Amino acid sequence: MADISGEPVVVIGLGRFGTALALELVERGTEVLAIDRNPKTVQSLSGRLPHVVAADTTDPEVFEQLGIGDFQRAVVAIGSDIQASILSTSLLADLEIPNIWAKATNQQHASILSRVGAHHVVFPEHEMGERVAHLLSGRLLDYVELDADFAVIKMKPPRAVVGMPLRESKLRSRWGVTVVAVKPENPGPRSGPGFTYATPDTVLAYGDLILVVGTIEKVERFGGAD
Ligand code: ATP
C-alpha cells in the first residue's frame, strides 16, 4: 500500500475540532487545504492557516474549482449541520478520495457517514468523555484506546508487582497485561531519564511510571489494583 502519511489533507468545517486538527497538521509540516462556509471564520484563521478558503462544500462545483479530486485524504469536521456533513462526505466519496474521515455527533449520523463513503468515523466529544472517565476512575495517568478492545495505559505500578523482576510478577498469567516500557523514578547508570523498554529483568519501584498494554477490561482491572 502507498505511504500517504505526507500527503496534503483537506479539512472541511473549521469549528473547534476542525480548527485544532488543521492547525496541528500544519504545525507538523503537512500541507492543509482548510474550507469553511463562514467567511468570518476563514478570515480569523487566515494568519495561521496558509491555505484557507470560504466555500460551501455541499456544492459539487466547489470541489471541482478547488481540485479536491486530486487529494488522497480528507476530513469532514462539520458537526451540527448533519445534512451538510453527509452531503460533503458523499461528494468526497464520489471523487473516490481514498481516505475520508468524518466527525459524527451520534450513532445514526455515524452509520449514515459510513454508508455514504466515510472510511473512518470519529466522535471527538464521546471519545474524550470516555478517556476522561478512565483517567478519573483509577490511578491511570493516561489512557489511549488502540482499537475497539485494546488499550495502552500510563500508570504507577501497583504494589503487587513492585520490587521483583517482571518475570516473577506473573503479569501475563495473573493480570493478562504486558508492561512494555518503564520510566524510572530514580534513573540508574544504565537507564536514562525517559522511558526505556521493559525486559523480564526489569524491577519496578513504586514511583516509576509504566506503559501497560492489554485488552480494555484487563488494563482497567490492572489500573485499579492497589
Ligand atoms: P465543533 O464542536 O468542532 O466546534 P460543531 O460540531 O459545532 O463543531 P459545526 O459548528 O456545526 O460543528 O460545524 C463546524 C464548521 O463547519 C462551522 O464553522 C461551519 O461554518 C462549517 N460548515 C458547516 N456547514 C458547512 C458547509 N456546507 N460547507 C463548509 N463549511 C461548513
Description of the structure:
The chain is α/β, with parallel strands linked by helices. It folds into two domains: 9-122, 3-Layer(aba) Sandwich (Rossmann fold); 127-223, Alpha-Beta Plaits, CATH 3.30.70. Helix content is 33%, strand content 23%. It contains eight helices and eleven strands. The strands form two sheets. A six-stranded parallel sheet has the order 3-2-1-4-5-6, sandwiched between helices. The longest helix is centred in the middle third of the chain and has 14 residues, at 124-137. The termini are far apart. It binds adenosine-5'-triphosphate. Residues 12-18, 35-38, 41, 56-58, 78-81, 84 line the site of adenosine-5'-triphosphate.
Reading off the top of the CATH hierarchy, the class of the largest domain is best stated as Alpha Beta
Q: Approximately what portion of the residues adopt beta-strand conformation?
A: 15-25%
Main β-sheet, in a few words? Answer: 6 strands, parallel
Q: Tell me the CATH topology of the largest domain.
A: Rossmann fold
CATH architecture label of the largest domain? 3-Layer(aba) Sandwich
Give the strand order of the largest sheet, numbering strands 1, 2, ... along the chain: 3-2-1-4-5-6
Count of discrete structural domains? 2
Task: Give the distinct bound molecules.
Answer: adenosine-5'-triphosphate
CATH level-four homologous superfamily name of the largest domain: NAD(P)-binding Rossmann-like Domain
Percentage of residues in helical conformation: 25-40%
Estimated structural class: alpha/beta
Tally of DSSP β-strands: 11
Counting DSSP H or I runs of 4 or more residues, the number of helices is: 8
Low-confidence stretches: none
Our measurement of the CA-to-CA distance between the termini, rounded to an integer number of angstroms, reads: 45 Å
Instruction: Indicate the radius of gyration in whole angstroms.
Output: 22 Å
H-E string: EHEHEHEHEHEHEEHEEEH
* Global outline: elongated
Average of the residue pLDDT scores: 91
